[in-house]
Amino acid sequence: MVALPNGDSMLIKQKSRVLATRAFSLQSNIALLNDQGETAKARLSLLNRQIKIVRDKLSFSEEDLAKIKKASEERKESLRKEITTIAKRQKEAETTRSKQQIALEQLLKSAPEGTQPEPTPELALANAKLEAGDVKIESLQFISEKLESLIQLESYIPEVYLNRKILIEAKDKETRDRAFDFIQSNYDRLKAWEIVVNNELAAVNADISKQESRASAIAVDDLRLQPLSDLRNALSDKQTILRRVLQTSSYQSRILKRWLTNFDSSIADIPIQEKAKSLISSAWKFTKQIWQFPVYEYEKDVMLGGEKNTVSRWVGLGDIFIGLSFFSIAYFLANRIKDRLRNFIVSHKYIAEAQAKTLSNWLMIIVGFFLAIATLNYLALPLTVFAFLGGALLIGVGFGTQTLIKNFISGIIVLFERKIRVGDIVDIGGGPGKIIEINTRSSILRSGDGKETLVPNSLFLENKVTSFTLSNKKSGRASKSLPLSQSHRK
Description:
Elements: H1 6-57, H2 62-109, H3 121-169, H4 173-216, H5 225-266, H6 272-291, E1 294-304, E2 307-316, H7 317-347, H8 353-378, H9 391-400, H10 402-417, E3 425-427, E4 432-438, E5 442-447, E6 452-456, H11 459-462, E7 466-467, E8 480-481, H12 484-489
Helix pairs in contact: 2-3, 3-4, 3-5, 4-5, 7-8
């Protein structure tokens, strides 16, 4: 082992003591910071409990509301006095402006008739005075309107405080929601008003800068400086009232924002039962809004007191849902009854199964038509409401569905004419076959080799049809060949 010199050994020991001292100091600081953190947490918890206690006990008495209303009325009275003063100033400004207009007209008359007056300093001064007078009158009118706006704002303050009282003291959620919505709507209006006032203030500031630049370009001894100064003063008055309005609206919006924020933070203290009840109430309210959502509005003539009046009616989404549900359920039940009735008739051999199927299909079309009429009657919808489709749309649909309608009408004629029935053996040009179904749009023809052909019903009326069972359906020996449409005419 190598022995260190005494000097190096002492230096190492001193450094070790310094490091140990620093480590102890750091540990002490960490412990102190931990203690301070715990103390801060305890103070914060205590403050939260105190805030909760104060919030729970916070309320507005009727006396407080009366004081607020009285203070608001006093401010409105002061604003009305200002408006009266502004009206007097405006009247004086209009009188002065009339005199300035007369003076300008006299200067213009001094020029020979039919010639332009020479640009003299007197004429420039008269024009400057008239311009300043116009701006002053417009500024006073602007100030009067803004003071009226402040009066309207003061009128809302007692009502807002009343809703604040309801928001704090109401027990049921619906009442609190109405109060919250009222405060929120007023807050939104104030923020929108602030945007408008800021835009107006920016425009006035730009006008003032423009007039200052204009004045700086004029000589010091120019007589137009005084009218330009009056013009800037009028613009400054507009600037002052706008700043006043902005300050008032900003102050009120900050108060409303604090109320809304405090209410949102207090929701966390609501018991779980109240939260569940609130959630159910909100879901039910949303469902009612969806249910009552107006899908279509129409006008209807009604008799009131012996007089004909036109009232507006609307069909809601819930009404349409009920109507479609009624149609679907009724159609389903009618279809089940139809199937049972068809099976009963076929099982007792009253008619063949194919004929029963054809008749049942036509029966369901009739049932569906009457169910549609009943649904429209339930919805109180007159058929005229479908006029919104427009003539062009109806014509287009007519051209697009003319083949479908033609086959449908042909099926009705074939069914009621009974020249061709289920079980007949016919030939429509592609070889003989047996008719096994006659449906609404087409019929099914089965040939001797078992192939089934879908035949549009219109072919039975438009083409030559050979029936092997028309004259004698029992023997099947007679035949008759002619278009059914000709037979129908005979």
